[in-house]
Design brief:
It is a single chain. The longest helix has 25 residues. The protein is globular and about 60 Å long. It is mainly alpha-helical and 179 residues long. The protein is built from eight helices and no strands. The protein is 67% helix and 0% strand. Helix 2 crosses helix 3 and helix 3 packs across helix 4.
Length: 179
């Protein structure tokens, strides 16, 4: 059962009314910050992740469906995923140390590279749109199959089938001897 403030926020989000952001912040920022801080354990990262969460909420506000989840559940999921992404990004930045003296990047034999197959996004763009949407969600936006199913409102089995077919089509581009 929704509270009147929650219903008001949902209605404002559906209309694209910016008042929704103020109400969201006033009513949910502290709780979401707590969730994010628990994941990141870093106040600066948590503050950045909270801001990104509200940006994502605003950008995806028309996708919210009260039949699928309560508003807080939807906000919680976005906040938690944003915090996880922020933490991964932060950790990766420090784990990837470039060792120029041991690098072999300058001696890479380019003659053996097939220049036609280096641009993955270009090849994905040539697939049927239904395969493009799934591949982009899974590989370029980093969604899980379940998240893509929910976000795109496509059954999970269909996501899996389109992934398999899309990858099979890409394999033809990258390994033409299989055809």
């Amino acid at each position: 059962m929704s509270t009147s403030i929650e219903q008001q926020i949902v209605e404002l989000l559906a209309k694209g009314d910016k008042k929704a952001l103020n109400l969201l912040y006033e009513n949910y920022a502290d709780s979401l910050y707590g969730v994010i801080l628990k994941v990141t354990t870093n106040e600066e990262l948590a503050q950045d992740a909270l801001q990104e969460t509200f940006v994502k909420v605003w950008k995806n506000s028309k996708k919210y469906d009260s039949k699928k989840a309560k508003l807080f559940t939807w906000l919680f999921r976005i906040a938690k995923n944003t915090a996880i992404d922020k933490l991964r990004s932060f950790n990766n930045r420090f784990e990837k140390e470039v060792q120029i003296d041991k690098s072999n990047v300058y001696i890479l034999p380019t003659a053996s590279l097939n220049q036609d197959v280096l641009d993955l996004k270009e090849h994905v763009a040539r697939l049927d749109e239904k395969y493009q949407i799934v591949l982009k969600a899974l590989f370029f936006e980093g969604m899980t199959q379940q998240e893509a199913s929910e976000e795109l409102d496509i059954p999970l089995g269909t996501i899996k089938s389109r992934l398999k077919i899309g990858l099979r089509e890409l394999k033809k581009v990258y390994d033409p001897e299989i055809n």
